[in-house]
């Protein structure tokens, strides 16, 4: 009888120790495999807060953000700074955001408010000139024939489709190598009333889709 009681007590102690061990081990796995992810809400988009603006209290700039993205695109990185600039990256669902080639799949949206004191000089060169700045860019570009100038929501805009160009390496004034290099489609817009320069780009997105993104801008 005594041996039986000793055996039962030993089994209970062993079971208790095993339960404690499994609990501690499980908690440890949870802590390491699922780190806390912070998010920032920007308009309709819930975006990973990679720059920790929710902690730093960075002021949100007085700009508009997209309400439209092509089907399947989700926000993976969004941040804003200096009270003037915002950057938002979107990629198709299923693409690993940590992969080395993720940039070629991304749609990148940027907006810069030029009403701050430190933006005065740039404002004179771009915002104040409006469509003239785009015509000058087109005239001075080596591939100006590819640049289209139009309007979006009554604002001057310009853009071009994705394509390829020769990337040159020049040493001592001589071309030592030349190889094709791809560039993204880009659409940019100047809102002279609200003093904001908007731009959106993507390698595998037609220019018409980029136009739709800027057409959808709203105050968050």
If you had to describe this structure to a student in words, what would you say it looks like?
The protein has 5 helices and 11 strands. The protein has 220 residues and is an alpha+beta fold. It folds into 2 domains: 1-35; 39-215, no CATH class. A 7-stranded antiparallel β-sheet has the order 3-4-5-11-10-7-6, with helices on both faces. It has a two-stranded antiparallel ribbon with strand order 1-2. A hairpin with a 4-residue loop joins β10 and β11. The relative contact order is 0.13.
Strand order of the largest sheet: 3-4-5-11-10-7-6
- Given the C-alpha coordinates, what overall shape results? globular
Q: Helicity, in percent?
A: 25-40%
Q: Approximately how much beta-strand content do the residues carry?
A: 25-35%
The biggest beta sheet reads: 7 strands, antiparallel
Rg over alpha carbons: 27 Å
Low-confidence stretches: 1-32
- Number of E-state strands: 11
Distance between termini?
76 Å
- What's the mean pLDDT score? 85
- What is the chain-wise order of helices and strands? HEEHEEEHHEEEEEEH
Compute the number of structural domains. 2
Quickly count the helices: 5
Structural class given helices, strands, pairing? alpha+beta
Question: Can you lay out the helices and strands and say which pair or pack?
Answer:
Elements: H1 2-33, E1 39-42, E2 45-48, H2 53-56, E3 73-81, E4 85-92, E5 107-113, H3 120-125, H4 131-140, E6 148-152, E7 155-160, E8 163-171, E9 174-183, E10 185-191, E11 196-202, H5 207-215
Antiparallel strand pairs: 1-2, 3-4, 4-5, 5-11, 6-7, 7-10, 8-9, 10-11
């Amino acid at each position: 009888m005594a041996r039986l009681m000793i055996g039962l007590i030993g089994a209970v102690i062993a079971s208790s120790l095993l339960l404690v061990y499994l609990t501690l081990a499980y908690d440890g796995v949870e802590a390491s495999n699922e780190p806390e992810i912070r998010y920032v809400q920007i308009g309709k988009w819930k975006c990973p807060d990679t720059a920790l603006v929710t902690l730093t209290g960075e002021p949100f700039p007085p700009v508009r953000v997209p309400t439209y993205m092509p089907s399947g695109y989700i926000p993976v990185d969004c941040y804003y700074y200096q009270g003037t600039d915002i950057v938002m990256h979107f990629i198709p669902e299923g693409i690993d955001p940590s992969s080395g080639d993720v940039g070629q799949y991304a749609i990148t949206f940027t907006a810069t408010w030029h009403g701050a004191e430190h933006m005065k000089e740039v404002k004179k060169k771009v915002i104040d000139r409006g469509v003239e700045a785009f015509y000058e860019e087109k005239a001075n570009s080596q591939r100006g024939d590819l640049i289209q100038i139009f309007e979006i929501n009554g604002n001057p805009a310009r853009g071009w489709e994705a394509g390829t160009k020769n990337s040159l390496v020049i040493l001592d004034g001589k071309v030592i190598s030349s190889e094709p290099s791809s560039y993204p489609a880009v659409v940019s817009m100047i809102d002279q009333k609200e003093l904001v320069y908007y731009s959106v780009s993507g390698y595998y997105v037609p220019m018409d889709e980029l136009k739709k993104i800027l057409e959808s801008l709203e105050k968050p």
